[in-house]
Amino acid sequence: MTPNVPDVTLADSLPDPAKLIACPQCDALHLDADLPIGSTSRCVRCHTVLESPRQLALTRIVMLAAAALILMIAAIFFPFLELHAAGRIQRSSLLDTVMAFSTGMTAPLTLAMAALIVILPVTRFVSLIYVLAPMAFGWTPARHASRAFRIAEALRPWAMAEVFIVGVAVALVKVAGLAHLSIGPAFWAFVALVIVTVLKDNFMCRVTVWKTLEQRRPS
Amino acid sequence: MENTRTAPSVLTARAAGLIGCTQCGRVQTPGAARCIRCGSVLQSRDEASLQKVWAWFFAGLVVYVPANIYPMLRTSSLGKTTDSTILGGVIDLIHHGSIGIALIVFFASIVIPVGKFIAIAYLALSIRHRVKLSDHRRHILYEIVEFVGRWSMIDVFVVAILAALVQLDFAAHINPGIAAVSFALSVAFTMMSAQSFDPRLIWDANKGNPA
Ligand SMILES: [Zn+2]
Ligand SMILES: [Zn+2]
């Protein structure tokens, strides 16, 4: 918890800019020391985490992203929820949920739903694998790796898999009075996907990834 | 904890005549348009930040009004059609006895959006005007607003799932209402508003110019 990077006190004896790091949130300058694995450095002023390198973090993120991708495929194609009422069974997949808005005035929401639940999360997984797999193997970065990682980071707030799963829970309660409901395998795939995504994002330290990309870039 | 209002030892990149990258933390001398480490656009401060914040804020506010007036869900059961608004949905859940779920929906669809409007307006106004809250408290408020905004989307997802599940061939039939669209837009616009805010401005505001 302690800030183990000393803050810069005097403007006149400022070291080389490359040896400094500015807090992304409040702009405070710190000396950019190489951190030991497992430690965390925080901004002295606003306490934002600056860097937190972890053992084998890159390899773990790549593996978790690949797992998430496979789970997403399962979640799309297996039945998600089943509704039993009046002797009939209504199966609905993730695709049906996305298409729920496809008629009438709510049609534009279809695209937004598809993006928030499936397309944006998948884009993030693919670009993270693309950027970090060569890093994990110790190779030079792939072409346009910087752009791909910038996109992955920009999409982060918009990939709403975990929000969706809470929505499913609420919907289950609302429908429970109306009919008997059972949960399909795709639901569990999606729950696993959310857990994997949260784990992956916890491992990821943006500054460390950028530094690694910079070091490995062929000059 | 330490008093953040008087922290003379902190030197910012701007005060040192340098520019810090908000994506990767790399510090560089002014002049370059993009960061040499990550390629992000460099700005010492986002000068248009507040304008963008207010533009998205009012867009979000405008679409938030119909989201509360028009129906979120239209349920047809045995020839009867009932519309339920956001607030109506919460009240229905309370009547069903699902207090916990009612609380989740109440927070996600009413408390978070309203709280977000207030918090964003407060933060944006605090840059130009003197306010009681310390820099550090306002920074925490900003982080909460950024983190919590996307969770308002819950109710839109609920409507989509219900509409997908309860189809025509059943006794009951659920259709999404127009409020679902305007509510989703409102959430997206306020997320854009919060993202446009440059948190470095919070820390600059009370300092004067540390030249
Ligand atoms: Zn800071
Ligand atoms: Zn950068």
How would you portray this structure in words?
- The complex is a heterodimer of chains A (219) and B (211).
- Chain A is mainly α.
- Chain A has two domains: 44 residues, no CATH class; 160 residues.
- Chain A is built from seven helices and seven strands, in the order ββββαββααααβαα.
- In chain A, strands 6-5-7 form a three-stranded antiparallel beta sheet.
- In chain A, a hairpin with a 2-residue loop joins strand 5 and strand 6.
- In chain A, helix 1 runs antiparallel to helix 6.
- Chain A is elongated and about 80 Å long.
- The N terminus of chain A is likely disordered.
- With 211 residues, chain B is mainly alpha-helical.
- The N terminus of chain B is likely disordered.
- Chain B has two domains: 44 residues; 163 residues, Butyryl-CoA Dehydrogenase, subunit A, domain 3 (Up-down Bundle), CATH 1.20.140.
- In chain B, strand 1 and strand 2 form a beta hairpin.
- The chains are: A mainly alpha (219), B mainly alpha (211).
- At the A-B interface, strand 1, strand 5, strand 6, helix 2 and helix 3 of A face strand 1, strand 2, helix 3, helix 4 and helix 5 of B.
- The site of one zinc ion has 8 residues of chain B, from loops.
- The site of one zinc ion (ZN) has 8 residues of chain B, from loops.
